Amino acid sequence: MFAFVVAAVFLLLFAAGVLRDRRRFGNAVYLGLAVTFLGIGLLAGIDDAPPGVAETVMIVGLLVLGLGPVVLAALLCANGVKMVRKEGRRPANLLALLAGLGMFALMGLAIAAAVTRSPALGVLVGTTLLVLAYVSFLFLCFVGYAYLYGRMRIRRDADYVVVLGSGLVGGHRVPPLLASRLDRGRQVYEMLAARGGDAPVLITSGGQGPDEALPESHAMADYLVERGFPAGAVLREDRSRTTEENMLRSKELMERDRPGSSCVIVTNNFHAFRAALTARRAGLDGQVVGSPTAAYFWPSATIREFVAVFLQYKVVNLGICLTLILLGVLAWAVR
């Protein structure tokens, strides 16, 4: 009963957080804690369930704990190989492969600790699992809430649609990933314009990289205009180099022309929640929506997005991880 009460408290905190501002990582943590305590409450009362339910839950749990990590690691490695073949060997494209290999390494270390009965290996494995459990909990919170955030409807009109840039192919051509953002941005623009009142302005946001022949925002605007989008409805923001700069520079343009305006920000769906957190920090009054992305791109991209969010709160997160490591060292010292 106590677990259900705690779950209800965290669920209320989650609902209040969403109503106050959808763009908070705390909402994800509250939701994760609510689900966790709900699960604990259900498991605590499993003895009162109909015959066979407890046995079934136990079997499923053992299968998940025993085979789940192996299957997940294998899938991550397979996806990582596909990612490298399609996108190249940039560090960001190796994340799924590295995560899968890391899981296999930890499983091998756990087996070695069990076979050798080494106290040192046992403490190392136990400490690593503690840190991994904490990081995995946050990762599941991130993925779960990012999924929900990406499906929240645009709940009001907006004065601007801001499409975030990405790299150009050959230094001048819009790649498929960026084209999907622009197509989605156009859909949002047309939806808002159809509501009546003043039509919004679409801002293409992206500066010029060292290997690009023109600013990303110019190539993005050309892409839209060539496909029939009204040229007078496009505003180019061509000074930004990062997502945070995209937000700040776009905000400057909006405040210059329409002080106090609101916007809808468009990026790829795997990037939407982190972009929303960045928009909140930049003081931008805007919801973020995502455009479709190829399925093979998701694992590495999601890991990259989570790492970036994890490090945004590095004082808290690294402090907790360090505390868990110190507990492992203490356990080794007093063994």
Automatic annotation (TrEMBL):
CDD domains: YdcF-like (cd06259). The keyword Membrane applies. One of its GO terms (biological process) is Gram-negative-bacterium-type cell wall biogenesis. Pfam families: DUF218 (PF02698). The keyword Membrane applies. Gene3D superfamilies: HUPs. The chain crosses the membrane at residues 57-81, 93-115, 121-148, 315-334. Residues 159-304 form the DUF218 domain. Signal peptide: none annotated. InterPro entries: Cell_Envelope_Assoc, DUF218, Rossmann-like_a/b/a_fold. GO terms for cellular component: plasma membrane. Keywords: Membrane, Transmembrane, Transmembrane helix. PANTHER family: INNER MEMBRANE PROTEIN, PROBABLE PERMEASE, MEMBRANE PROTEIN. This is DUF218 domain-containing protein. It comes from Streptomyces viridochromogenes.
